[in-house]
Each structure stands twice: as C-alpha cells, then as structure tokens.
Amino acid sequence: IVKTLLEREWIRIVGYRDVPGKPAMFATTKVFLDHFNLKNLDDLPPLAELREMEAEPVLDFDDAPVPQSLQELADASAEPE
C-alpha cells in the first residue's frame, strides 16, 4: 500500500525515526489533497467516523435474488465450450 501511495505521489518521506531500524516517517502531499478535493487534512472525517463507515455495509447483496436473465447469462458463460 505504501509503495502505491508513493508512486501516486500521495505521500512522501519526511524523515526517519531515531529508533532501531530507522523507520520512515511519511506525510501527505498536495497531490493527495488535490485528488480528494481537500484544502487541508482537517477536511478529512475523524477516524471514529471512518470506523463506523467500515462497520456498515454500503450495499448488501447477500440475500438479493439474481434476476433470471443475469443468472442465465452467468450459467451460459460458465459452461465449457
């Protein structure tokens, strides 16, 4: 994940901690803010709000019936040629 964020230039290394292993410290970039249309990091929702969003499914298709036409299409594509 960190590699992807670095490649997209959404984060950058701003230093290294003075502890064994010298782990990198990261900061978000203007590219990150621009991508998400934010003026500053204070525009982000609080972590507690994000955790609540994770707990709530956005769309629940587990019990939804599959329309017959889609099921037939899925069955046909699963058959060996």
Structure, explained:
It is a single chain. The chain is α+β, with helices and mostly antiparallel strands and 81 residues long. The protein has one domain: Arc Repressor Mutant, subunit A, CATH 1.10.10.10. Helix content is 40%, strand content 14%. The protein contains 4 helices and 2 strands; from the N terminus they run αββααα. It has helices spanning 2-7, 30-35, 47-55, 68-78; strands at 11-16, 24-28. The chain has a two-stranded antiparallel ribbon with strand order 1-2. It is elongated. The two termini are 39 Å apart. The mean pLDDT is 87.
Low-confidence stretches: none
Number of helices in the DSSP assignment? 4
Mean pLDDT: 87
Determine the strand fraction and express it as a percent band.
5-15%
**Biggest sheet record:** 2 strands, antiparallel
C-alpha end-to-end distance: 39 Å
**What is the CATH third-level topology name?**
Arc Repressor Mutant, subunit A
Total number of beta strands = 2
Protein name: SMC-Scp complex subunit ScpB
Organism: Pseudomonas fluorescens
GO biological process, one term: chromosome separation
Keywords: Cell cycle, Cell division, Chromosome partition, Cytoplasm
